[in-house]
Write a structure and sequence with these properties.
Elements lengths: L1 H11 L10 H11 L7 E8 L11 E5 L10 E4 L2 H10 L3 E3 L1 H8 L7 E4 L4 H4 L3 H4 L17 H10 L1 E5 L5 E8 L4 H17 L10 E8 L5 E3 L8
Parallel strand pairs: 3-4, 3-5
Antiparallel strand pairs: 1-7, 1-8, 2-6, 8-9
Length: 232
């Protein structure tokens, strides 16, 4: 416990808790303080001026990170016939129809992202109570209900990240690994922030992006000056 405490203190050393850092500097601060024995994930959190309890203030979308996420994503596809074959050829980890629905209903969820063809949604809809709370329910708004399953599988494998605002008005996502070059992490964060900006709902009033911070799995949080999130 003492060792972990010392590591955290060392990681925080030199980071001012109230200072707003430029994005590039903040990324380098995190990278320079990463000391875990594994490749830590970099996560961004954005506090938004919305109340997601109101339908016209919901923020949701998907973004393809230009440099990927650095993690292996297991993709399940609900499809039949030719579409099932297309999904397999594109690299889907699990493909099925009624059999896959039964498997999920039985509690076996061995995937990180689910995609479905439109004709399968009558069946997949039964899984709402199981997949919904886990953020895995296929949805046309984020491209996971689509006839083009091959493109959806490739996007999921290549760095597509879904986001959805939480009750407190916070949206967050993993945007890379500390082993990435600083420029690649910053590009991913800017792409994510741009997607969140574009998903600004009609009901949002006043200051939309209120606070932004990044952190690594075992590292401290670093506050970001939102004005530095714009593409350079």
């Amino acid at each position: 416990m003492a060792k972990a405490g010392k590591r955290i203190r060392n990681a925080r050393d030199g980071i001012e808790r109230t200072k707003l850092y430029g994005l590039d500097e903040a990324v380098e601060l995190l990278k320079g303080r990463a000391s875990a024995k594994f490749d830590e994930t970099i996560e961004v959190a954005m506090n938004l001026g919305v109340d997601p309890r109101h339908a016209d203030q919901m923020v949701r979308g998907v973004v393809n990170l230009p440099n990927g996420t650095g993690r292996t994503v297991r993709v399940a596809v609900f499809a039949r016939g030719d579409k099932a074959e297309e999904a397999k050829a594109a690299g889907a980890d699990i493909v099925g129809a009624e059999d896959l629905v039964e498997q999920v209903q039985g509690g076996t969820i061995d995937f990180d992202r689910a995609i479905a063809t439109p004709d399968m949604m009558a069946l997949v809809g039964r899984l709402g109570k199981v997949l919904g709370p886990r953020g895995l329910m296929p949805n046309p708004r984020v491209g996971t209900v689509t006839p083009d399953v091959a493109a959806a599988v490739k996007a999921s494998k290549g760095g597509a990240v879904e986001f959805r605002v939480e009750k407190a008005g916070i949206v967050h996502a993993g945007v890379g690994k500390v082993s990435f070059e600083g420029k690649a992490i910053a590009e991913n964060i800017r792409a994510f922030a741009d997607a969140v900006q574009k998903a600004k709902p009609s009901g949002a009033k006043g200051n939309y992006v209120q606070r932004v911070a990044i952190t690594s799995t075992m590292g401290p949080g670093v506050k970001i000056d939102p004005s530095t999130l714009n593409a350079a």
